[in-house]
Amino acid sequence: MAQKVKISVRKVLQALLTFVVASTCIIAIISASKVERSKNLEGVEVHIKSEKLYHFVEEKQILDEAIHSRNVDIMNIPVGKLDIQSMEQVLKSDPWVADAQLYIDNNRVLHILITQRIPVARIFEKSGNSYYIDNTLSEMPLSDNFKYYTSVVTNAPVLGNDSLSTRIKGQIVSMVQFIRADTFWNAQISQIIIDSDYSFQLEPVLGQQRIIFGDTARMAEKFGNVYTFYKKVLNRIGWDKYNKLDVRFKGQVVASPSLPYTGPIDKAVNEMNWISSIEQTEARTDSIKASKLNKNAGEKAAKAPEPTKKENKPAAKDKDKKDKHTDAKAPVKTDKKDTKKDNKDTAPKKAPDKKETKPPVKKVEPAKKPEPTNKEKSNNKNTDKKPARAIYQDDKEN
Description:
By secondary structure, the chain is an alpha/beta fold. The chain is 43% helix and 16% strand. The strands form two sheets. The chain has a nine-stranded mixed sheet with strand order 6-5-4-7-8-9-10-11-12. Strand 11 and strand 12 form a beta hairpin. It starts with 8 loop residues before the first helix and ends with a helix.
């Protein structure tokens, strides 16, 4: 005999009640959403990440691209008819927008979230074109709203979307990020130059030497070798002694001197001492310059006029007067003793040396002639008639 299945009325009522409540809730939610979608927006808010630091994208620009350029009166269109996904795609097509997200909250306010692209380097192509690239290797044109100072890469070829261009862009970004992470190199490197073989050269701020870097392989080791060369070589002999530093080879820094250098006599490469030879040439040039300066100073001192010294004019006048006095007395016959005294009196005085400092000279009046005696008067009368030489001859005969 088959057993009869007992149906519980209680369970049936519970199932029916649960179904009715669930369907009622669903209907209520659907009707509520329909009502909300039929209503218009209350407002639009734009949120730009890092808006205070970077101004590549502005709020007005976002509203023009997302709303006004679509010729849609967004405030008078029901919320249900807004195409949010297409608006996001339009905003993401902006080269300065990295990401865009749109949503409507319960207060019927449209929120636009924008993430800006931050440049990593500025590229200058050989053709003259210039643009920025970010860490995702995306290209951004120059912005009219904001000028951003970043690392500069010059002499770049035309870079597209092929594999070679992508590899070069990746090397540029990796090198710039390494330089930025180090405070010393961030201040020392002014620009990155791309060579014809797609290798890199670095232009420093301090010093005239150019760093031939090669590719980005062993990048930390190469920068470390250059820093060691700066510290142990250039700090000792000066930062203007080399014009090239080649770090492409492992464990080496090949420096090309900028001075007129002549190698040492010993040709053994292992025994060459570049630093000491450069110091010797510098010392020689300094000594030559010093000798030239001393020689020029001596020539200027020799050409300078000597200071004129005043002569003792009164003494010269006295000497001339005394000479005249002695000449007048020459024909007079006098005793030998008197002549000796007169010679002593009339002897010219020696002029003092020019080097000695002269005391102030007083004017000396010429001495008055002594009045002649009667004998001298008679002798003078005789001398007026005969020459002095005849008188001396007569005296000898007598």
